[in-house]
Structure formats: C-alpha cells, structure tokens
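Journal club side-thread
Mid-discussion, someone asked how the predicted structure for our own chain would compare to the paper's figures. Pasting it here so we can look after the session.
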Amino acid sequence: MLFHSSLRKELSRNFGATLIVLVTIVMTMMLIRTLGQAAAGTVNPADVGMVLGFTMLGHLTTVLTMSLFIATVGTLSRMYLESEMVIWLVSGKGLRSLLTPILRFAWPMLISIAALVLLVWPWSNQQIS
C-alpha cells in the first residue's frame, strides 16, 4: 500500500540518519575515554582500537534502540505536523493501522538488538577484560 511504503521509507531515512549521528557521538565519547585509560596505563596503548571496537559492540544495543525510537517518534511527529495523519485518518485508516508498517520496519532491528544483548554484549565484555 502507498501509506505503508511511504511510512517505511520515511522511517528508514530517519533511522539511518539518527543511527549515523548517534554512532558518531558514542564513538567519539568512547575514543576519548579509551585514550584517557591508555594515558593512565589501564589499557595498553597498542590495544586502543580493539578496546574501542569491543566497547562499541557493547553500546550498540542502546544506540540501535534509541535510533529506532527517535526515528519512529520523529516520523510520526512530522506526519502530524504536515497534516499527513489527517489524510491517513480521513481515508479510513485508524491509529492501529500504523502498527503494521512500523512493526514490519522494526522487527529486523528488534531481532538484532536481542541477539546483541544475549550473545555479543557478554562476549565483548569478556574480550575487554
């Protein structure tokens, strides 16, 4: 349907942009923290890149969750602001019909987040220590 495809397209654009911004911010913060630990002698300076990568894997669940939330809220807010929701509601679609395209967009990220929490996060913490 036209509504579903336009909503998923808007969600994917917002998700991609938000993900890039949040990954950049988190990577910068982790780089500063890791370089501080290397200067203090807690982390071997030769292993800064590896520790940074494993730390980013540990924080990726939070970044993906925040990106998904911000993309969803931003898309729905823009649709209300530009009166697209009026068209959606007048055409006979209720608010519940928004759940289908949002969940169709979000299920791969939700499965990725679950895999990261259950498998990758404990492994990356073990590798860092």
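Post-session note: The first helix runs from residue 2 to 40.
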